[in-house]
Fold this sequence. Notes:
Structural class: mainly alpha
Shape: elongated
Number of helices: 5
Largest sheet: none
Number of strands: 0
Number of domains: 1
Amino acid sequence: MESTLQNPALIANETAIPRSRGLLIAFWIVTALFCLQMAFTAYAQLRLPQVAEMFTHLGFPGYFRVELSWVKLLGVVLLLAPVPSRLKEWAYAGFAITLGSALIAHFSVGDAPAVWGWAAFTSVLWGLSYFFWRRVEARRKSIPFAD
Length: 147
């Protein structure tokens, strides 16, 4: 057994484990909530007539609602599945564009905060999920033999 005085890296690795576990738990909680929200909105866009009316109110064509729903579901799968980091990065980018566009669309037609509040709340979940994912990825790459 090696002394921690001679090898300070042993101390760093021992103290990093609880923090990385907490980081991982926070990541999965926030990401699960975000993915549930995105999956629900995809379902609502495909099935609920009042959501279809909102798309018309925002000035979008009907086919865009269907296309957006399927892309959202694909993004949810990419965030939850063990896929390469590059694909997750693209999914996060797609969700950022989607959420930003939703807020802009609501603001441009003068919708009240009660209407665009869910997009704003989901954007906060997106930001937290992406922040934690980047931290988890950095931690994974810094610990040898983590794969």
